[in-house]
Design goal:
The chain has a domain at 82-196 and 209-216: Alpha-Beta Plaits (2-Layer Sandwich). The protein has helices at residues 2-14, 30-34, 36-55, 98-102, 139-143, 170-174, 179-184, and strands spanning 82-83, 108-114, 122-130, 149-150, 167-168. Helices cover 26% and strands 10% of the residues. The strands form 2 sheets. Strands 2-3-5 form a 3-stranded antiparallel β-sheet. Strands 1-4 form a two-stranded antiparallel sheet. The termini are far apart. β2 and β3 (122-130) form a beta hairpin.
Length: 223
């Protein structure tokens, strides 16, 4: 006990810094302590950008009058989800749950069912994505072994008035075209959200949409 106490006294007498930490001194004059030069430099850059944006030919920033004017998103932009259909119109998804497992936001909900197609073990009876919970990470696209889900639509999910309207079912996702497919069809994908994107009266998920959302199910059409 006595030796331990003497060691602490020697350490505190020599330095109050932990062992291995070196104190580095910095010489600061009066202007540095007032921060006036740094503030002036920052204001100078602000004024420079201000006059360049007003009178200069090459502007630092440009204001886009959204939503009347829209810019073209980059080709690698991760937009609204969509399900890729086969030739028969059914989704490529085989209900392997890879996308649901990889999703960090837990926004994908899949219910699998058996099928008579010998090439496919399962198919998604229900496939729903809660776009409000999605963090747009794209991990679902990377995890899918069948290229069944993509985010190449070129537009982001539209604003909704209720959480239920942001829950997209299988038919909703199948009805969305990719940017290239929309151009080939003579449409503008960014201006063509699915018809059921702002639907009302979606029934509880427990009742299901029987493998389809929107007009084929998933909404209470009695309203």
């Amino acid at each position: 006990m006595g030796g331990h106490g003497h060691g602490n006294e020697a350490k505190s007498a020599g330095s109050d810094l932990p062992e291995g930490v070196v104190r580095v001194s910095r010489n600061m004059d009066a202007s540095d302590r007032l921060f006036v030069p740094a503030i002036a430099a920052g204001l100078g850059q602000t004024v420079k950008h201000f006059f360049t944006n007003i009178f200069g030919k090459e502007k630092y920033t440009q204001t886009v009058q959204y939503p009347d004017v829209k810019i073209e998103y980059p080709h690698r932009f991760r937009g609204m989800h969509r399900l890729v259909p086969r030739e028969d119109g059914n989704p490529r998804c085989v209900a392997c749950f890879m996308c649901q497992t990889a999703c960090p936001a837990r926004c994908i909900h899949i219910v699998a069912g058996e099928t008579d197609d010998q090439r496919i073990e399962k198919f998604p009876v229900i496939f729903e994505i809660d776009e409000l919970r999605c963090v747009v990470c794209g991990l679902c696209v990377e995890a899918c072994p069948c290229d069944a889900i993509r985010m190449d639509t070129g537009f982001h999910p539209k604003p909704v008035y209720s959480r239920e309207d942001a829950d997209f079912g299988k038919a909703d996702l199948l009805g969305i075209l990719g940017r290239e497919e929309a151009k080939a069809a003579g449409q503008r994908a960014k201006d063509k959200p699915p018809a059921t994107a702002a639907g009302t009266g979606r029934v509880e998920r427990a009742h299901g949409d029987h493998g389809a959302g929107g007009s084929a199910g998933g909404y209470d059409h009695s309203h």
